[in-house]
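Sample intake sheet
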Amino acid sequence: MLDLGSSKPQLDTILTKAGIKTINTSAILHGDFTALTADGWKLAKREKNTAVFNRSLKDLDINPQNQPVLITTNIAPDHDINPGVPGYPDDETFGINKFMRLTVYDLPSGLTRFYLPGFLRAKRVLLSGSFNNWSTLKGTMLKTDSGWVADVKLAPGVYEYKYIIDGRWQRDRDNLQQHPDGFNDVNSVYYKYNHTFTLKGYTNVKKVTLAGSFNNWDANNIVLQKIGNAWQTRFYLHDGTHTYRFLVDGQWLTDPANPTTIKDADGHINSVLNQGETVTFKLTGYTQAKKVYLAGTFNNWKPGEILLKKTTTGWAIPIIVPAGNYGYKFIVDGNWITDPVNPRHLTEGGISNSFISIKPNYTFKLAGYGKARSVHIAGNFNDWDPDGLVMDHTGNEWTIKMYLKQGKYRYKFLVDGKWILDPGNKLYEQNEHNSGNSFIWIE
């Protein structure tokens, strides 16, 4: 399937990567498919900006696909980086790896090794996954005497992957953790661990398990292993506030090594684990106020949940917030106000809120435009809301830092109401308005 909405340089590049060379792309974009048909391709269907071509798999010498391939630089729709998209796992509270035979494991160097046993007659094997944007060009694996290996640098998190063995996609048959791939098959899932739970002593007991808010208090699926004079388990745990207890031979026990506890609605005492970035929210002034609360997208805008403490200059509270982009406000004696010292704002549902990014991993920059009254940025990360994100003017640049998950992001700047491409980014693609969008990939 050809996307005729692509530009000539874009189509040149993608056709070359697809193995289709010496093709007059200008003619194709004007509806002349003579060169393709002469090369053995048959026009099957033509609809608006798309043209579907068929060719025998024997001629192509590739494996069959479950659906036509879209040959375009417009790789995925605007929702390609939203949660739940096949191939890019949604945020999960916790995860434990389950292997019939250990084929993915961490090395002392900090790298993660992927091992594919067998297939010694294969000519080429690639490792492809959410960590390299499902590349079919990168991820070449090294052949050993017993299989194939590739070492990858991964941060703690959840990853999906498959192997490409001489052009054929295959999941890891030894990995029992799977997610649907969106094409009537599954991807293998690997959890890069970031937390260890340890219970020292109790060497005479038979069984120790762990349950908490992260696994819906299931006391059966996290079993600790006895190691020396302690019980231990490791798994991936998402940033946030978690409550938990150990179950020791059927008796509930809070963590003796953790002094932080809380009583739940049923009167049980649970240990508390805060994992993530500690952020101190401050509101200067308002010393005559009786109560000041904080609310935002990080707590589903619950108005009476986070109470600030009074200081000599105003109000403050440190809280644990997972990585992400958030809107927030202070509630002063029932009145909602934005943060007076934060110039960045986020429009949500027509309401302007203060904006904060926790553990930002990308900075959007626009140089110049010093006389502009305001500069906004909009893209598929905020549903293209032109009032959504206000950039800050510092020196000769307008900037905003954001936390972006893996995936492709399209965006534009809005300078005093006028849309412009990012002059500092050579990557762009055409849009339905024929004005183009800048884009970046986050790996």
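Comment: Confidence is low (pLDDT under 50) at residues 60-83. The longest helix spans residues 8-17.
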